[in-house]
Amino acid sequence: MSQLYEFLAGPCIYITLILCFAGLVRKTMIIISGRRQGMRFLLPHTRKYVLTYTADDETVDPLVSSVSFAGRDPFLAVASIIFHISIIAAPFSAAAHGILFDQAWFLMPPRFNPSITGMFTMTAIVSGLFLLLRRILVQHVAAVSSWKDYSAMICVLTPFVTGFLARKLIGPYEIVMLIHCISAHVLLVATGWTRLGHMIFFTTGLFITSDMNREIPV
Amino acid sequence: MNTVDRKIIRDMLRRKRYMREMLNACASCGMCAESCFVYKNTGDRNAVPSYKVRNTLGKLFRTRGRVNRHELEAMSRLLWGHCVLCRQCYCPMGIDLSSIMAWGRAICRSQNIDGGTGFNVE
């Protein structure tokens, strides 16, 4: 078991990072290639349209308007922002991860008080559970959720729950750490190849739109 | 005509390959539902914008255009029956939902399916 742990906490990261970056590069290339397919890059505040009717056809014209980043549910927006900040900040602030960085690349990231890492971990778990419960209980969210959405959420939460358990020495430590490492690798690879990539690409959609006037008959 | 020309569908999907990545960015948060007046007035889950795009163009991408006429007709009921392309759908990820719906309509029209509007291409 310790050999498997050594592999997961060491050389496996190179395989995982290569797979993750390959997926991210692929997504980026496809999005950039969209420029040849009628996609336009716009500033977010210009992304609003109105249907106009002519004698021959309907077309869609840009209409300058504002898009609120908070959307129509500010509470959900805040919970979502806290969740996403926490899942990125927690692993980078963990002292144990810093030691692994140092051992592998002689690169010691800034040290944080363990209580800060604990706070990020707890907010990631609590806000993640809130989003998971919302997915289960809110009718219109449950209606559009598939097994992929639930497994994505479990995939994201597992490294944080197991990291918390390992930190507090709850449960069989070796098994908890193995699950922690495996789930973290799965999460990184999945970020490159699945809808979890929205963690990286969530801003992209705000800047692109389709050139509907030329390309799409509505 | 009871068949579909899958080559045309595949070509049209290839022309908008980036839309697949836009669809992949959907986190199924359901926030688009609140911005759709069709959903707000009917409460019908078929009218939730993310449900509509996933089960129309999303399905076409997933199946690589391998759909039959019956499935395309079912899609057309979502594309025309539950959406008026008012462009009011809001997505926190910035997914251009109505352009995806519009391209779904274009694909249906290429197969002479128009959701009952009578605006066939031919």
The largest β sheet of chain B comes out as: none
Termini distance of chain A?
A: 59 Å
The computed structural class of chain B is: mainly alpha
Overall pLDDT confidence of chain B: 85
The greatest interface here is: A-B, 52 and 42 residues
| Structure annotation, total helices of chain A | 11
Supply the helix-strand structural class of chain A. Answer: mainly alpha
Radius of gyration of chain A: 21 Å
Fraction of residues of chain B in helices? Answer: 55-70%
Query: Outline of chain B, from the CA principal axes?
Result: globular
What's the overall average pLDDT of chain A, rounded? 78
Return the string of H and E elements of chain B: HHHHHHHH
String of helices and strands of chain A: HHEEEHHHHHHHHEH
Topology, number of strands of chain B: 0
Give me the oligomer status.
heterodimer
Sequence stretches where pLDDT stays below 50 over 5 or more residues of chain A: 44-70, 211-218
Strand content of chain A: 5-15%
Which secondary structure elements does this structure contain, and how are they paired or packed?
The complex is a heterodimer of chains A (218) and B (122).
Chain A: H1 2-9, H2 12-33, E1 39-41, E2 49-53, E3 58-62, H3 74-93, H4 95-105, H5 114-137, H6 139-144, H7 147-167, H8 173-193, H9 198-201, H10 204-207, E4 208-210, H11 212-215
Helix pairs in contact in A: 1-8, 2-8, 3-5, 5-7, 7-8
Chain B: H1 6-15, H2 17-24, H3 31-35, H4 37-42, H5 49-54, H6 57-62, H7 69-81, H8 97-110
Helix pairs in contact in B: 7-8
